[in-house]
Design a protein that fits this description.
12 strands; 9 helices; Immunoglobulin-like; 313 residues; Rossmann fold; alpha+beta; 3-stranded parallel β-sheet; single chain; 43% helix; 4-stranded antiparallel β-sheet; globular
Length: 313
C-alpha cells in the first residue's frame, strides 16, 4: 500500500511523462553536438571544419545548451521523485549510472558551447550570394550569432558575376557589387571577401584544391609548435595543432590541445602499457614511444594545453 504522499508524487510523475517531457527537444541537434565533441576531444585533429545547415537549423542547433539545461533539470527531478520505484525496477547501481550518464552528456554539450564561443578557438564564416535575399539572411544570421556570443570573423560572398565586356553581365555585376558594399557597411567588424562564379561546378578533389588556393593561398608548411598559426588569403584563420611530441633528455613530452576543457573533466589511466586520457567520461588512446604507467606520468594542465612528461627508462 502507498501512503497519500507517495500517490501524489506518482500522479505528478505520470502527468509529466504524459506531457512527453522525457523526450529531448532537438534530439537530432543534440546528437550532432555530441558527434562534434568527439572530434573536438580528439587531439589527432588540428582543424575541424563544421559545415552547418541553413540559418534556421543552425540557430536551433546553437540554442541547444539552454534546451539541454531545462530538459535535464526536469528529467533529474523526475528521477528524484521516482527514485524508489526506479531502484526496484533497475537496481540502485543502474539508477545511479543513468543519472551519471545524463550529467556527462550535459557537460559534453556545455563543453562544445564553451569551444564555439571562444574566439581564440573558433571562427564562424558566413557564406552567402550577392542577392537581396541572401544578404538579408546573412545579416539576420550575424545578428543571432552575436546574440549567442559566437565569434564571426569573416563573410564569403560566393558566385559573384565575373567582369565581362557585355552589357547584361556588366549590369548584373554592378548590382551584385552594391549588395557586397551593403554587407561591408553593415558588417563593419567582419572581413567580407568574394569569390567569382566559375565556369564549371566545383566537383572533385582537384577543383576543391583550386578553390582552396584561391581562398587560402598556396599551401605552405607551418612549424611544429602548437600555435596559434595564422593562415589564409581571402579568408584568414588562426589554427592550433592538436598534438605535439618532443624528445628531451630521458623523457618524451607530449602537448595535447584540449580547447575549453576543465580540470575536473579530465582523467588519466593506463592499461597494459597503453595511456588513456578521459574527457567527460570518454577515453582516447595516446600513443607513446614506450609502454607507460599512468602513475609515472607527470601531467600538468595549463589553460587549454595538457602537458605529459613520460619517462623513457
Amino acid at each position: 500500500m502507498l501512503d497519500s504522499n507517495a500517490k501524489e508524487e506518482i500522479e505528478d510523475m505520470k502527468s509529466e511523462i504524459q506531457t512527453s517531457e522525457m523526450i529531448l527537444p532537438g534530439l537530432d541537434e543534440a546528437l550532432a553536438f555530441d558527434e562534434l565533441l568527439r572530434h573536438v576531444e580528439d587531439p589527432n585533429w588540428d582543424v575541424i571544419v563544421f559545415d552547418t545547415a541553413p540559418t534556421g537549423h543552425t540557430l536551433r542547433f546553437l540554442s541547444l545548451p539552454e534546451i539541454i539545461e531545462a530538459w535535464s533539470g526536469r528529467l533529474i527531478r523526475m528521477m528524484r521523485i521516482s527514485g524508489g520505484i526506479r531502484s526496484m525496477l533497475f537496481g540502485s547501481k543502474e539508477s545511479n549510472e543513468m543519472k551519471e550518464e545524463l550529467e556527462k552528456f550535459r557537460r559534453r554539450v556545455l563543453h562544445v558551447r564553451r569551444v564555439l564561443s571562444d574566439e581564440q578557438l573558433t571562427s564562424f564564416t558566413l557564406v552567402t550570394i550577392p542577392e537581396r535575399m541572401g544578404v538579408n539572411e546573412t545579416l539576420r544570421a550575424h545578428k543571432s550569432l552575436v546574440e549567442f556570443n559566437l565569434p564571426v570573423h569573416s563573410c564569403l560572398v560566393n558566385r559573384l558575376t565575373p567582369e565581362f565586356d557585355h552589357p547584361f553581365l556588366a549590369k548584373r555585376r554592378d548590382a551584385e557589387l552594391v549588395r557586397i558594399s551593403e554587407l561591408e557597411e553593415k558588417l563593419d567588424s567582419v572581413e567580407v571577401a568574394s569569390l567569382e562564379l566559375l565556369d564549371q561546378e566545383v566537383i572533385g578533389v582537384e577543383n576543391l584544391r583550386n578553390v582552396g588556393q584561391t581562398l587560402y593561398g598556396v599551401p605552405t608548411k607551418i612549424d611544429d609548435s602548437l600555435g596559434p598559426h595564422s593562415i589564409g588569403k581571402l579568408l584568414k584563420h588562426d589554427i592550433h595543432r592538436g598534438m605535439v611530441k618532443e624528445l628531451h633528455e630521458g623523457i618524451e613530452r607530449i602537448y595535447l590541445h584540449f580547447p575549453g576543457i576543465k580540470r575536473d573533466e579530465l582523467s588519466l589511466r593506463s592499461n597494459d602499457g597503453i595511456l588513456y586520457i578521459g574527457l567527460n567520461g570518454r577515453e582516447k588512446e595516446i600513443k607513446t614511444s614506450v609502454p607507460v604507467k599512468a602513475s609515472q606520468v607527470d601531467a600538468k594542465l595549463e589553460g587549454d594545453v595538457l602537458r605529459l612528461d613520460i619517462p623513457l627508462e
